[in-house]
Amino acid sequence: MSASARWSVVALVILVALGVAFWSELDAQDPASPAGNDARDTVSARDKRDADTPEALAGPRAAAALEPCPAPGEGQGPAPLRGIVLECVGDGTPTDIAAAVAGRPVVLNLWAYWCGPCADELPAMAEYQRRVGPEVLVLTVHQDENESAALIRLAELGVHLPTVQDGRRSIAAALQVPNVMPATVVLRADGSVAEILPRSFATADDIAAAVDPKIGVA
Fold it and tell me: Domain named Thioredoxin: which ranges (predicted)?
């Protein structure tokens, strides 16, 4: 075989390999393909530290005794949140956020373990949830990669609200929440955003005054 023929064969092999890689990448990104569905249903490792393994979190989870994350409600949930799957801090299960908040008024409380005003506000959020009952869901969103520290902080505060781990702050990005903590997002039952409140609350009464009129709670 001549040198030119050999180079032609090599070029053909490279082109075929590049074509296979290209079509494989397209298939992986196709939402209709099984691989695409698996990717959407999998919690990203970037949301938390490598050190926060199930074994390392077992003790803090037991101490925190958080309530389970909500089961899917009725409907598809808010469009901006569709496709966001986060880990439930209480038990490590994946939580489809849009489905979890669908069909019900929701108060999303965005916080981090190192945030002082957040620590002051979380007990007030828990008291507000106790008062309002199942009519409204309060779901807290931990916006730091250190999931262990979140569990320890919640245990210290005696706050057992359902919590999801969002180290990449994907919920805040999807809902265009200002880059401050704490911040509260009020969602109507139809999935629309009633209000974004980039501020802290001192008491359950303060939360009720700000939230209830937005979602029709008496």
Answer: 56-216
Mean pLDDT of the chain: 85
Distance from C-alpha of 181 to C-alpha of 28, rounded to nearest angstrom = 35
Q: 19 or 60: whose pLDDT is higher?
A: 60
Give the Cα separation of 3 and 120 in Å (integer): 76
| Other C-beta atoms lying within 10 Å of the C-beta of residue 211 | 22
Which residue type does 212 have? Answer: D
- Of 163, 159, 168, which is closest to residue 49 (Cα–Cα)? 168
Question: Residue 180's pLDDT is what?
Answer: 95
Enumerate residues 6+ apart whose C-beta is below 8 A from 53. none
CA angle 89, 40, 72 (to 5 degrees): 55
For residue 141, the tally of other CB atoms under 10 A from its CB is: 25
| 153 and 142 Cβ atoms separated by less than 8 Å | no
Pairing of strands 85-88, 137-142: unpaired
